């Protein structure tokens, strides 16, 4: 009897959960579907969900627009570049604070976090004018540095929480055996820290890929990533729904996939360890 | 255990991060502070000292400032309400045993990974467009007159779009918190005959209080600087100009650097008031 009830309950809850899940996902699904329609079908009345002539035409058109590849490439360079640069700075930093904490470590950590709280618009003009005057405006290197600095506190915090989970006993055993700091890092810590570093990397790529304040304000053509490319569809090109959808689908697909893999780490990364 | 040698090595390892963040924070902020005391309008060739706190006084006393603060409060408040209440409900739902839980979770989380310009444009054109948008079809289907969402209900529309993006974030964090709830306590309450509602009110909600606070604070910090969603949809028109957007327009569009910088400093101060509360919670957690 009880089992029957709980089974029925599970069915009802399942239906509700799926309905809500699909509703929330619907705008993304609709965008993906529309990207396979012709422009006429994209605005057809009544709209059709699945039963239309599927076409790859939009992807060809968007792909052929000579600059699409460049925007995509810029997105990749900025996201990957700022992540690698960020990890190079963050790993030693998080490492030292996790394993050689001093009296001030906590204050330093909190101060680093506080830099993340500063609204970007408060420093918009200085960064803008510095970029202009140094000739770095609209270059990869500028955006890589800015995106790196923007996410640096998050990466350091995230890595710190991962490193903290590595048992100190193992380190002490290695030290007893006469391991130097260098070999301790290379042979003992790194293998244990790799999963944490990998998920930090993933989250940072996602954040950098989707960043849309600095990328919109500090680029024009040369270093502009997909965020700017899509914003250029604002009007009147945005009225070509099928092409807008194809461009959008290509812009979000890689990150959607990465995001699904990193959903658990997301909580850790974005709450600074305050929720476990 | 740490030797003198390894301790100085540790300092050296931390130096680049500290140095870079220090420069990143101090140099531009000092520049903004400096500009905020200038009458600096590059387009007219004006560059001179302003009269004391003139820029601040002018920025704060203009009606666009009060409007923008009000808009910011309404937007952030609306988004927080939708995402927190929706997030708690969704987290409770996803915590139940259901078939295909992993897939539903993925569906719910997905909007968070969509880049802001894409979600703003997709909602603006494909859903909220008064002629070809999906909502327009839906309205016509039920015999109603389609609404031009972004000009007739602009703030609501932006709140809607941004809530869609942030609901997954709230859900994910609250779900994580719910899952750490002690199930024995729940079962004991159930055995004692506590109803589902009172179990929620007296066990789940108090347990979630901290996570909810964290969600509210973190979202507030991110939401105070919403930019792309406004940039792409209304460009600040129809009363959707938030404080961030007002400063952006003063600085980069009308190029009144002095006035805009004063606004920027005010935005920094307001954001820091929120930040202090968040930092306190995070700091406490670091001690444990």
Q: Determine the strand fraction of chain A and express it as a percent band.
A: under 5%
| Strand segment count of chain A | 0
CATH class of chain B: Mainly Alpha
CATH architecture label of chain B = Orthogonal Bundle
Q: What's the rounded overall pLDDT mean of chain A? A: 85
State the distance separating the first and last CA atoms of chain B: 21 Å
Number of domains of chain A: 2
**Euclidean distance between termini CA atoms of chain A:** 37 Å
Q: How large a portion of the residues of chain B is in β-strands, by DSSP E? A: under 5%
CATH topology of chain B, anyone? Answer: MetI-like fold
Describe this structure in words.
The complex is a heterodimer of chains A (276) and B (288). Chain A has 276 residues and is mainly α. Chain A folds into 2 domains: 2-59, no CATH class; 60-271, MetI-like (MetI-like fold, Orthogonal Bundle). Helices cover 74% and strands 0% of the residues of chain A. Chain A has 13 helices and no strands. Chain A has helices at 2-34, 39-42, 57-64, 68-99, 105-116, 124-133, 140-164, 168-176, 181-210, 214-217, 226-231, 241-261, 263-271. The radius of gyration of chain A is 24 Å and the shape is globular. The mean pLDDT of chain A is 85. Chain B has 288 residues and is mostly helical. Chain B has a single domain (53-287), classed as MetI-like (MetI-like fold, Orthogonal Bundle). In chain B, 75% of the residues lie in helices and 3% in strands. Chain B has helices at residues 4-35, 54-61, 63-95, 101-109, 116-127, 134-141, 149-152, 154-179, 183-191, 196-223, 228-233, 243-253, 257-287, and strands at 38-41, 46-49. A two-stranded antiparallel sheet of chain B has the order 1-2. In chain B, strand 1 and strand 2 form a beta hairpin. In chain B, helix 3 (63-95) crosses helix 10, helix 8 (154-179) crosses helix 10 (196-223) and helix 10 (196-223) packs across helix 13. Chain B is globular. The model of chain B has no long low-confidence stretch (mean pLDDT 87). Classes of the chains: A mainly alpha (276), B mainly alpha (288). The interface between A and B is large, with 97 and 103 residues.
